[in-house]
Amino acid sequence: MAQLSEGFESVRLSAAHADTWSEDMQDQAETALVALRRVLKATASNVKSVATKTGLTASQLLVLQVLRTQGETLTGDLARAVDLKQATISILIDKLQEQQLVVRRRGETDRRRVWVRLTEKGLTALDGAPDLLQDTFRTRFAQLAEWEQASITAALLRVVSLLNAEKIEASPILDVAGVNDPPLGNGQ
Amino acid sequence: MAQLSEGFESVRLSAAHADTWSEDMQDQAETALVALRRVLKATASNVKSVATKTGLTASQLLVLQVLRTQGETLTGDLARAVDLKQATISILIDKLQEQQLVVRRRGETDRRRVWVRLTEKGLTALDGAPDLLQDTFRTRFAQLAEWEQASITAALLRVVSLLNAEKIEASPILDVAGVNDPPLGNGQ
DNA sequence: TAAATTTTTTTTGACTATCTATATAAGTGC
DNA sequence: GCACTTATATAGATAGTCAAAAAAAATTTA
């Protein structure tokens, strides 16, 4: 999939202009955008490398990660969580099921619904796919002075608020849990 | 494509845990990762919306943006810049050329090489694809106090250095220009 | 209860992006 | 000229995605 996830290509090469622009008010914004751009690049290439390393595609990996975080999940909620259509998820789950990384289970009270959950094999596959980027980030972040951690966190949150404007506010991955039926356990 | 370009899915829902974890050293890192995650989500969905808005795919848009930034570029350098194989770029350029958004031109001293550049139509297509995310970012960033701009920029640069570790350091988009032949003008 | 409607998932068919491997063409060194 | 390398293009295969339709079950309405 690999959708590329770039969004800041049109940033001017502020580094090249730095000497002439140094005092320009806009310079700061451009520098920030270039930095953002690099963050994006780093994460995108990280996703790619983890994906090829595990033999999974990025979407598949994404779905597995959501399942690990949320436990058993409805296919529809999965689709929302990773921003794909249900048709796509359905096929994607087929593939994952063929590899026995997940299992489907029909809902009992409502037999239209289909719950998906990780298998042991799926869990180990995920463990075998350490997210290097995330790990290095955590490791290095932990080594910073506390005030710097705080300042970076604050800045990132600020950036989120700058970006979010009208858009987004969906961010379903972080708040899908507990939508309808008991998501964990064997209930419903 | 959709390649989704996420990289931080496995982040725990630190918001949900915040009350119990508040003093935990790791909490800060998790919060930072969640924030990063949201930045990624925002930019990814932005790319998608801009792409569908213009009828171009994300990769195509990306290539056009690189061309706008760098001027005439070799197909191989394009491939490196957007992290696709040459074969893929070749086909991608075919499509863009069909729509008359770019033109190919054979190198004159080295006739193996193929230069690609934006047409007028390509340029207007790009102008018609305003990057809302980037614009809102710039606008809102500009409204911040100067000290805050500085602190955000510094934090972002710090994040880049945290992420970059061994990896990356390629970041070709920002330094491909002027590799071999005169990239601009009609030289060689 | 029967019929119509809605919800949830799957299937189907088409299209596109991407990759690997191979081919073509042009340059370089001997 | 010959082997080798470099730059791009083509071919074939795989996979991801979507829209539309089908299927199955629940809900509403009459």
From TrEMBL, chains A, B:
One GO term of the biological process aspect: response to stress
Domain HTH marR-type residues, every copy: 26-161
Signal peptide residue numbers: none
Protein name, entry field: MarR family transcriptional regulator
Pfam families (alphabetical): MarR (PF01047)
SUPFAM superfamilies, A to Z: Winged helix' DNA-binding domain
GO molecular function: DNA-binding transcription factor activity
Record-linked InterPro entries: HTH_MarR-typ (IPR000835), MarR/SlyA-like (IPR039422), WH-like_DNA-bd_sf (IPR036388), WH_DNA-bd_sf (IPR036390)
Organism: Henriciella barbarensis
